[in-house]
Amino acid sequence: MENRCWWCQKITKLTGEHFLKKTDTKDLFHEMFFSKGKNVDLIRYSGETFQIQGPNSQRLKLVPNLCAKCNGARSQSSDKSYTHFINSFKKLKNEFLDSNSIDFTKIYVGNWQIQKRNLYKYILKHACCRMSENQIVIPNAIVDFLDDRTDNCSFKIFFVSKLYDEFLMSHDIPSSYKSHLGILESPNKDPSYVVGWFTVFGLSLKYVVDLKHIKRFNNDLQASKSYLTKIDYSDFNFTREKKEGEEAKLFAELMTSLEYFPFKYENKLELYNLLINRKSS
Ligand SMILES: [Zn+2]
Question: Are 228 and 273 contained in the same domain?
């Protein structure tokens, strides 16, 4: 396979974008990193739990498909806006949850319009890395947006707070996810849309990309507030004593199901009882 950067099209040595920023990883797993000899469990799609040794783990990187320049200098401002966004979101989370919205004037001081746009570019860059990994050609319209040549959005970004992640974090279960990439095909089997997301600190950043550039989505780039969707399983009433063996696997599968198909299971209580019964038998 040729080593072509999806952004600048150069054939060169490629680098992998972190799907979790190193700073986020350090924050998320802070205590465990500082207790020697311990690895960290990271639950991800398909219920598989794997371990990482530290924030430099290759497991935390996307498939290398960007050159060093595009993954560095070219996207530095959007990387910075993303890091600032996550740090501010952690502090202001409760306020945003109360109002079901993210107020960008509170996240960014002064030039919030530019920074909000940068944040969207960061999420899109992640989406493009995933598309490239799945052999999907990045639409020109997306590259034009990343390079500030257009304001037309053939993508849509959603902000979703997964309140059950709070439970996981409060029990020292890191709950960071990278979704698989959903590829929706037209009747003649052409890929038409991709959907995916990643979750960090209980916030899911979701994206839909129109590969054919037919739809013009409204991302309210000029609006100071964006809608924050909440997914709440507080009626789930979790209890958890120890996480080991079969139980841990089942739990991971359950959470993956919820993360993945949050509205699929009508009978959440039944699933929970299944979990509890497994534990006591
Ligand atoms: Zn490049």
Answer: no
Residue 232 and residue 167 in contact, taking contact as beta carbons nearer than 8 Å: no
Rounded to two decimals, the pTM is 0.80
Kind plus residue range of the DSSP H or E element containing 51: strand 49-52
Determine the Cα–Cα distance for residues 203 and 209; give it in Å rounded to an integer. 20
Cα of 64 from ligand 1 centre, angstroms: 11
Q: What does the pLDDT profile of the chain (281 residues) look like in tens digits?
A: 679 999 999 999 999 887 777 767 666 655 444 444 444 544 444 445 556 666 677 777 788 999 999 999 999 999 999 999 999 998 998 899 899 999 999 999 889 999 999 999 999 999 999 999 999 999 999 999 999 999 888 899 999 987 766 655 555 555 567 777 888 888 888 888 888 888 887 788 999 999 988 777 888 899 999 999 887 665 555 454 445 556 656 665 666 566 554 434 444 455 445 444 444 33
64 in a structural domain? yes
For residue 261, the enclosing domain spans: 233-281
Q: Rounded to the nearest whole angstrom, what is the distance from the C-alpha of residue 280 to the centroid of ligand 1?
A: 54
**Cα-to-centroid distance, 148 and ligand 1 (Å):** 16
In a domain, 8, yes or no: no
Query: What's the gap in Å between 72 CA and the centre of ligand 1?
Result: 9
Kindly give the distance from the C-alpha atom of residue 246 to the centroid of ligand 1, in angstroms, as a whole number.
Answer: 44
